[in-house]
């Protein structure tokens, strides 16, 4: 039954496409029919993380508003590079989309020696989905109670203290390196496989300082098992209205947010870009907004031009940080 | 030349030593660091060296202690099973799951002496293929193309 | 008395008709995917995640949890019947379970696994209900130094896994450790042994190695000599454990439950060690260690209980601290986040219905699994009587689809072919793959913890003996090494004397 009805639908859509092509329909006519079949949304991470959740939330909304199912395909590996590379190689017909992010489309360009794709020119960047800051937190027994105290302590005892991050070349690692460079601090990096094990060791007092996604530590900050010192966004975060930004503490250049966006292979027809940008913006400002804000994330939805400009800015910014911190992935 | 007393130990030794050498060679540029601050090369190179030593030990033992012969090698089964597996991987994106699975079943089945290409086996292969498409692709949503790129998708 | 109220709340939540249904759906699906080789709970839960968006949070998590421990049950079925461990935990079950199956004792092996799992599941669920928060605190005492010592202990204990020569056992462990090095290094991000292939940067998947070395290798070597070949050599003798079996399995079940419950609490890889540790323990305390690997029922009972106990207690760090101990737990945390629940210590106080509902559902789910699985044993046993030339292509089909679904790439299928070739070669040379798989699992973790411990201590090696838990484990390592090596050395000397004489 399922097979039959599905196949029939598929058959019709295929014949419609063939017919359209045969009659020499213009690009516009095709796009008006867009989407005429299932859309694959490549999420370049294994399922379960925040990025995956982002992708799925948006896919769910787009399925509703586009009238075609948007299927999430997890293509994890190499910090998002595998999925992003696969997406870059596919046809720019609007049926392959990719969840772009700070790793695969900004940091990796600075940390990996041989990237198989260019994060800016190989993609059509459609719109931003959400962004959120990292947070610097410490074990409650640690001496520093404020960011300034942490700075003073690290200056007094350079190289004595350690910080845990969710991995070499992760957005949290890069944010901390940026802060260290601007503030002239020497704090050693202890790298983990993801945010959860890093948090575990800081909770257990094995490492005193933690930098990770701001939302992940909320329950532990509430219960007093971690003390949050600062967030890395340009403004304070809704989850921690009393916690200052690093910028407020006197380092206005230290702004680092983890972001995700919607992108497609380069050369996506402009009307499809427009359609997807509008629908995604509606979704993140509408039905998905509450869920994003519960995670301390700021909804995106900017124009394609602005998002493209933002991505190239991020690539340049993190390349500089990676070079001066000597971080390479390969 | 001394006779090899235990062929199994001999070949195992070659294999171990080969892996050890490969690990040392491929890892020759990895920074070693120091015991207190290990680089990415410390652990793998230590293991590579240990692997090589164990291989040598097995080689030495193969000349001293008697053991059993390797026995017959099922070359046909080996080639067909591994070949069928790779054929599936090659066909899947190109021809799609239906053809790739049918090919996998028939090619691997040919490794058995009881196999013969008749209507019955064909029917079983197609039935299993269909069941897999229904359960895995339709039911669980494994993203495999039912028909591959060769069909213009 | 508070606990009774809490359990009551949990019972009301988990006992509602719809939640019972979701629990059953979860364990049923879990069993099914566990039985199908290759397709693991991670892939299944990932695919079902969108379905759970529309459900109430309790129902969603009850179902996902059911898939997880249901798959642990189902995984042992395939390991026993066709020597195909789809999960790291069922590698050791395959060792003796498969031999039992070949001796016509498949039914008894499966029943032992089911009963042991149920007992372990019950005890560990009680543990979770009573002591989750203090146990989680205990888990936090484990830092990198403790984990490193634990891994060393695990490795030394795994030497016991092998039946053949000590040299080959050690060599295969080292080979596993080496294979585990493939991928990018956590500390520096350097890509090691990836041959320039980005697909290898996150390392080789466990399932790929296990499927290749066990399943493909086994199929090829079964085809060597086909005369009258089927998986089962003997006539089936009984589907339930005999009175004599019961006498042999109760103690291993108890020991396995205790060991598994303890190791499961540790989020940094403890649960993975549970079944290996239980097997080594059983072989060590057995009066007939030589029977292990040839169909000893203790070798099924101990590890299976440990495995299930560990699966249940690994919920402790997830529920109380929001710390995932494996990819499945990470997915469940993802499901919570999507539901708008921030996993962590607040779940217990802010979402008591969810917390206690899951705990009670775990016990109900285990009961359902027992009821579901015992009658199925007859069916399974009949299934492996299907002529082998029909069975093995089907096994191969499930393996390839399962391996493909790990990362949705055919690269992994090619890689499985390579490990199949290696697996067959090992088989021909009497090199056992089980110690290699353990080395493969432990290798990356061991290196990671060792280097992390030294980074934290700024290069001070005494950290491993200065910390008491770590020191105790290292003493155990020494003792174990002595008991493993001493008999061999003595035997060697005796052999030498005999040759001289």
Detailed description of the structure:
Chain A is of the alpha/beta class. Chain A has helices at 2-22, 27-33, 50-66, 81-89, 103-111, 147-156, 171-183, 195-203, 218-222, 270-285, 289-294, 304-325, and strands at residues 39-43, 70-74, 96-101, 123-138, 162-165, 188-191, 209-213, 227-231, 257-265, 298-299. Chain A folds into two domains: 2-132 and 258-325, Bordetella uptake gene, domain 1 (D-Maltodextrin-Binding Protein, domain 2, 3-Layer(aba) Sandwich), CATH 3.40.190.150; 133-231, Periplasmic binding protein-like II (D-Maltodextrin-Binding Protein, domain 2, 3-Layer(aba) Sandwich), CATH 3.40.190.10. Chain A is globular and about 65 Å long. Chain B has 153 residues and is mainly α. Helix content of chain B is 64%, strand content 0%. Chain B is flat. With 501 residues, chain C is mainly alpha-helical. Chain C has one domain (2-500). A two-stranded antiparallel sheet of chain C has the order 1-2. In chain C, helix 4 runs antiparallel to helix 12, helix 6 packs antiparallel against helix 16 (352-383) and helix 10 (243-265) packs parallel to helix 12 (298-313). The longest helix of chain C has 35 residues, at 106-140. The radius of gyration of chain C is 22 Å and the shape is globular. At the B-C interface, helix 1, helix 2, helix 3, helix 4 and helix 5 of B face helix 3, helix 8, helix 9, helix 17 and helix 18 of C.
């Amino acid at each position: 039954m399922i097979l039959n009805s599905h196949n029939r639908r598929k058959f019709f859509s295929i014949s419609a496409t063939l017919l359209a092509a045969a009659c020499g329909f213009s690009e516009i006519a095709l796009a008006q029919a867009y989407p005429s079949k299932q859309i694959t949304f490549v999420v370049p991470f294994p399922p379960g993380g925040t990025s995956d959740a982002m992708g799925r939330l948006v896919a769910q909304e787009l399925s509703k508003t586009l009238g075609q199912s948007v299927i999430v395909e997890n293509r994890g590996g190499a910090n998002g590079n595998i999925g992003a590379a696969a997406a870059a190689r596919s046809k720019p017909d609007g049926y392959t989309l990719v969840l772009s992010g700070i790793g695969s489309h900004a940091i990796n360009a600075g940390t990996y020696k041989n990237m198989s794709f260019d994060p800016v020119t190989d993609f059509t960047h459609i719109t931003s989905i959400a962004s959120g800051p990292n947070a610097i937190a410490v074990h409650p027994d640690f001496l520093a109670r404020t960011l300034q105290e942490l700075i003073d302590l690290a200056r007094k005892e350079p190289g004595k203290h350690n910080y845990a991050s969710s991995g070499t070349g992760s957005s949290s690692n890069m944010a901390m390196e940026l802060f260290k460079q601007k503030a002239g601090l020497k704090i050693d990096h202890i790298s983990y496989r993801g945010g959860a094990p890093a948090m575990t060791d800081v909770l257990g007092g094995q490492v005193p300082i933690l930098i990770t996604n701001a939302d992940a530590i909320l329950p532990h900050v509430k219960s007093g098992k971690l003390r949050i010192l600062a967030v890395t966004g340009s403004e304070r975060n809704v989850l921690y209205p009393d916690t200052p930004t690093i910028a407020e503490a006197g380092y206005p250049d230290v702004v680092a947010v983890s972001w995700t966006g919607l992108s497609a292979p380069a050369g996506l027809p402009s009307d499809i870009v427009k359609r997807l940008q509008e629908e995604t913006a509606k979704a993140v400002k509408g039905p998905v907004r509450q869920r994003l804000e519960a995670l301390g994330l700021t909804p995106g939805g900017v124009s394609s031009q602005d998002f493209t400009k933002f991505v190239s800015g991020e690539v340049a910014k993190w390349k500089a940080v990676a070079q001066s911190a000597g971080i390479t992935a390969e | 030349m001394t006779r090899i007393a235990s062929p199994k130990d001999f070949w195992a030794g070659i294999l171990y030593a080969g892996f050890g050498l490969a690990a040392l060679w491929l890892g020759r540029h990895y920074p070693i660091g120091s015991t207190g601050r290990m680089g990415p090369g410390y652990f793998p190179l230590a293991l590579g060296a240990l692997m090589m030593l164990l291989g040598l030990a097995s080689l030495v033992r193969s000349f001293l202690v008697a053991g059993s012969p390797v026995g017959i090698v099922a070359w046909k089964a080996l080639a067909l099973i591994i070949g069928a597996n790779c054929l599936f991987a090659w066909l899947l994106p190109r021809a799609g799951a239906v053809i790739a699975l049918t090919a996998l079943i028939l090619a691997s089945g040919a490794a058995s002496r009881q196999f013969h290409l008749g209507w019955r086996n064909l029917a079983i292969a197609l039935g299993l293929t269909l069941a897999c498409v229904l359960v895995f692709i339709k039911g669980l949503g494994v993203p495999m193309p039912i028909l591959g790129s060769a069909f213009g998708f | 008395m508070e606990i009774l109220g809490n359990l009551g709340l949990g019972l009301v939540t988990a006992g509602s008709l719809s939640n019972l249904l979701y629990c059953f759906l979860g364990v049923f699906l879990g069993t099914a995917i566990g039985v199908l080789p290759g397709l693991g709970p991670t892939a299944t839960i990932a695919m079902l995640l969108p379905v759970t968006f529309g459900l109430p949070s309790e129902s969603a998590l009850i179902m996902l949890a059911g898939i997880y421990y249901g798959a642990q049950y189902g995984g042992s079925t395939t390991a026993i019947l066709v020597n195909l461990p789809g999960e790291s935990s069922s590698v050791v079950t395959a060792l003796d379970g498969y031999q039992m199956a070949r001796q016509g004792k498949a039914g008894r092996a499966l029943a032992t696994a089911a009963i042991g799992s149920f007992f372990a599941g019950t005890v560990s669920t009680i543990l979770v209900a009573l002591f989750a928060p203090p146990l989680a605190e205990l888990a936090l005492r484990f830092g990198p130094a403790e984990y490193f010592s634990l891994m060393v202990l695990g490795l030394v204990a795994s030497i016991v896994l092998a039946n053949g020569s000590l040299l080959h056992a050690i060599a295969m462990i080292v080979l596993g450790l080496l294979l585990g090095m493939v991928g990018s290094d956590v500390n520096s991000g350097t890509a090691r042994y990836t041959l320039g292939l980005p697909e290898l940067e996150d390392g080789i998947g466990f399932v790929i190695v296990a499927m290749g070395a066990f399943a493909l290798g086994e199929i090829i070597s079964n085809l060597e000599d086909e005369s009258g070949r089927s998986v089962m050599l003997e006539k089936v003798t009984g589907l339930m454990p005999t009175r004599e079996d019961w006498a042999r399995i109760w103690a291993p079940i108890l020991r396995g439950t205790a060991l598994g419950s303890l190791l499961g609490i540790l989020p940094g890889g403890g649960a993975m060690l549970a079944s290996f540790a239980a097997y080594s323990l059983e072989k060590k305390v057995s009066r007939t260690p030589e029977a292990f690997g040839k169909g000893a029922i203790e070798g099924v009972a101990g590890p299976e209980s440990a495995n299930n106990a560990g699966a249940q207690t690994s919920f402790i760090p997830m529920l109380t601290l929001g710390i995932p101990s494996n990819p499945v737990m990470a997915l469940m945390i993802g499901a919570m986040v999507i539901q708008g629940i921030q996993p962590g210590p607040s779940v217990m106080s802010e979402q008591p219905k969810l917390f206690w509902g899951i705990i009670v559902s775990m016990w109900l789910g285990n009961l359902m699994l027992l009821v579901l699985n015992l009658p199925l044993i007859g069916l399974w046993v009949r299934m492996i009587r299907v002529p082998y030339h029909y069975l093995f292509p089907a096994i191969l089909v499930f393996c390839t689809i399962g391996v493909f679904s790990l990362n949705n790439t055919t690269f992994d299928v090619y890689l499985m072919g390579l490990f199949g070739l290696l697996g067959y070669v090992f088989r021909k040379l009497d090199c056992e793959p089980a110690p290699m798989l353990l080395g493969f699992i432990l290798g990356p973790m061991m290196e990671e913890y060792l280097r992390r411990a030294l980074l934290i201590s700024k290069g001070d090696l005494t950290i491993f003996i200065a910390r008491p838990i770590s020191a105790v484990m290292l003493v155990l390592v020494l003792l174990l090494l002595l008991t493993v090596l001493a008999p061999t050395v003595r035997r060697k000397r005796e052999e030498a004397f005999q040759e001289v004489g």
